[in-house]
Amino acid sequence: MKTRFRIIFGASIALVLILSLAFKLYASSTASQLSGVVALVSKGRAIEPFLETPGTSFVEAHFYLPEGLADDVIFGIDQELIEGVDKPLYIKGGDWMGLVGLQRNGAVWIAGGTDETMQGKPSRDRAWKIQNLGQPLEPKTWYRMRCESDFGKRTFKRLKIDGPGLHKTLMLNDLRLDYPNYMPFDARSMSYYVFAMRGRSMMKTRGTPLVYFDDVTGGIERNGKDTVVFQSGFEDQSIVEKQPISLPVIKLSNYRQKHFYLEREESQFRTEKAPFALSGQFVGVADVDLH
Question: Can you tell me the distance from the alpha carbon of 205 to that of 133, in angstroms, rounded to the nearest whole number?
Answer without folding.
Answer: 23
